[in-house]
Design a protein that fits this description.
By secondary structure, this protein is mostly helical. Helix content is 64%, strand content 0%. Helix 4 packs parallel to helix 6 and helix 5 runs parallel beside helix 7.
């Protein structure tokens, strides 16, 4: 595991660009440091690490992700979450603990949305009986990123989306003044409108949504 981490540290250090890093940091409101590696180049650097035969054993994933999550440059968190996505065919019940850790540490939309859609979304597809338990738990917290995850994990579910659960989740959060929650409500409704526009239109007509959520929800139907 340590050799694996050391290798990606070496590659990121080798490819850093200070001027790009300053722009990336400013874009993220100076919350995180960056190496200055743009997404396309970063993914090219990462590619050999994600070759199946070179992946770490699944048992090492949580420790590896947490080690990378603690590092200052944001590229490490991007690498860690994309690494975690390579193991979604090996999901175990305990993996939700790792995903919660990732959502609640160094939280911002750029990582939370990936985790919610690609990791938590895959997890609840495999363990649907656990979905309501965790969604209710997250709704009761004061952590807006867990709440945003409760909205967004179904974003790519299409016809498998649980309409009743989405309705309950939106009603629990629609009075929040948080921009990131209001935006997420609109986003998930807009995405679902590609699958079931009648349901979304009826829901919006019957629900007092914020102007932002309503505008985003109906964008594809105007």
């Amino acid at each position: 595991m340590q050799d694996f981490i050391h290798s990606i540290v070496t590659e990121f250090e080798r490819n850093k660009n200070k001027s790009i890093a300053l722009g990336q940091k400013a874009y993220m409101r100076n919350q995180f440091d960056f190496f200055g590696i743009k997404t396309k180049k970063r993914r090219s650097i990462q590619k050999p690490f994600f070759v199946h035969q070179y992946l770490l054993p699944k048992a090492d994933l949580a420790a590896t992700v947490k080690s990378l999550w603690k590092k200052p440059q944001r590229e490490y968190q991007y690498f860690a979450q994309e690494l975690a996505s390579k193991y979604t065919k090996q999901l175990e019940p305990k993996d939700i603990d790792l995903y919660e850790y990732m959502v609640t540490h160094k939280s911002w939309w750029d990582t939370v949305d990936f985790i919610a859609i690609h990791l938590i979304g895959a997890y609840f597809k495999k363990y649907p009986q656990r979905t309501s338990l965790y969604v209710q738990k997250w709704l009761k917290t004061d952590n807006l990123w867990l709440q945003r995850s409760a909205l967004l994990f179904q974003l790519k579910y299409k016809s498998n989306l649980d309409e009743a659960l989405l309705r309950v989740t939106i009603h629990a959060l629609m009075d929040s003044k948080e921009f990131f929650l209001q935006k997420a409500i609109g986003w998930v409704l807009r995405e679902y409108s590609k699958t079931n526009p009648e349901w979304v239109k009826d829901f919006v007509d019957r629900t007092v949504l914020s102007p932002l959520s309503k505008r985003e929800a109906l964008r594809l139907m105007i």
